[in-house]
């Protein structure tokens, strides 16, 4: 991941600046090596050390938000209190066919919201204290606000999620998605949309991250416009992981 780490002013994370256009890390010609800015950022915001991951159309910020003791406590509360979908809501539509979701899912958020993805339209449950605690902590260090969270629980490394983009129409335009992980450390992959499939248009290097217990990954605009992300199968992982993706979605039109 280090080759995608670039220096950035602290104000940018708070929405006070823009990254230069030539981010590097990408080539439209497989025979030509890309130029990259490479450095490990030591930016600090609210006492945190941030790493800034950049490639063509990719803008993410990563930090360990919670220390081990606090992360352990939050993980325990999530395991005890989150109510996951069952029955028809535990299935997903892929290419017109319905399949059982290879993980557990739940949604929580403000009243008056709905969220549609993979053929399902979901109404979130009311916030519970542990989710409000995590949400408010993210807002405190980033200045961003969120009104909805999608929770994915992976019982072990066989549970996974395939390549997708979080680009549903309900998302507020230009808003970031905050991904917080608890439990087992898992690999997380970004693949540029032009590099997918056998007849892909460009050769753009896959970005691989490891999302640690208590970590926060901010997926900023326009990442989900250009990049797919996934959590692949890792059979050697035996422990569970719970991931919270906080979003800002538009109220349902009446």
Automatic annotation (TrEMBL):
Stretches assigned to the Fe2OG dioxygenase domain: 145-250
Catalytically driven reaction(s): a 1,N(6)-etheno-2'-deoxyadenosine in single-stranded DNA + 2-oxoglutarate + O2 + H2O = a 2'-deoxyadenosine in single-stranded DNA + glyoxal + succinate + CO2; a methylated nucleobase within DNA + 2-oxoglutarate + O2 = a nucleobase within DNA + formaldehyde + succinate + CO2; a 1,N(2)-etheno-2'-deoxyguanosine in double-stranded DNA + 2-oxoglutarate + O2 + H2O = a 2'-deoxyguanosine in double-stranded DNA + glyoxal + succinate + CO2; an N(1)-methyl-2'-deoxyadenosine in single-stranded DNA + 2-oxoglutarate + O2 = a 2'-deoxyadenosine in single-stranded DNA + formaldehyde + succinate + CO2 + H(+)
Chain residue ranges for the region called Disordered: 17-38
Keyword Magnesium appears in the UniProt entry: yes
One GO term (biological process): DNA alkylation repair
Pfam families attached to this UniProt entry: 2OG-FeII_Oxy_2
Residues involved in substrate binding: 95-97, 115-117, 167
Residues binding 2-oxoglutarate: 152, 154, 164, 229, 241, 245, 247
Subunit structure, as described in the record: Interacts with PCNA homotrimer; this interaction is enhanced during the S-phase of the cell cycle. Interacts with nucleolar proteins NCL, UBTF and NPM1. Interacts with XRCC5-XRCC6 heterodimer.
PANTHER family per UniProt: ALPHA-KETOGLUTARATE-DEPENDENT DIOXYGENASE ALKB HOMOLOG 2 (PTHR31573), DNA OXIDATIVE DEMETHYLASE ALKBH2 (PTHR31573:SF1)
Protein name, entry field: DNA oxidative demethylase ALKBH2
Species whose genome carries this gene: Nannospalax galili
């Amino acid at each position: 991941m280090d080759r995608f780490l670039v220096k950035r002013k602290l104000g940018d994370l708070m929405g006070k600046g823009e990254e230069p256009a030539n981010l590097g890390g990408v080539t439209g010609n497989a025979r030509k090596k890309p130029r990259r800015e490479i450095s490990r950022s030591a930016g600090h915001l609210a006492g945190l050390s941030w790493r800034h991951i950049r490639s063509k159309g990719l803008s993410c910020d990563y930090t360990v938000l919670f220390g081990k003791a606090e992360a352990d406590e939050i993980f325990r509360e999530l395991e005890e209190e989150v109510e996951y979908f069952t029955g028809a809501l535990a299935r997903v539509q892929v290419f017109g066919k319905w399949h059982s979701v290879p993980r557990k899912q739940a949604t929580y958020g403000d009243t008056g919201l709905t969220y549609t993805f993979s053929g399902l339209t979901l109404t979130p449950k009311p916030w519970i204290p542990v989710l409000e605690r995590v949400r408010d902590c993210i807002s405190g260090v980033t200045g961003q606000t969120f009104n909805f969270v999608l929770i994915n629980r992976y019982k072990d490394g066989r549970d996974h999620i395939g390549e997708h983009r979080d680009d549903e129409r309900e998302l507020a335009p230009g808003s970031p998605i905050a991904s917080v992980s608890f439990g087992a450390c898992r690999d997380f992959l970004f693949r540029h949309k032009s590099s997918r499939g056998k007849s892909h248009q460009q050769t753009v290097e896959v970005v691989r991250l490891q999302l640690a217990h208590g970590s926060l990954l901010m997926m900023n605009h326009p990442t989900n416009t250009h990049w797919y992300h996934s959590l692949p199968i890792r059979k050697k992982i035996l422990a569970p992981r719970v991931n919270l993706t906080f979003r800002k979605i538009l109220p349902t039109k009446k």
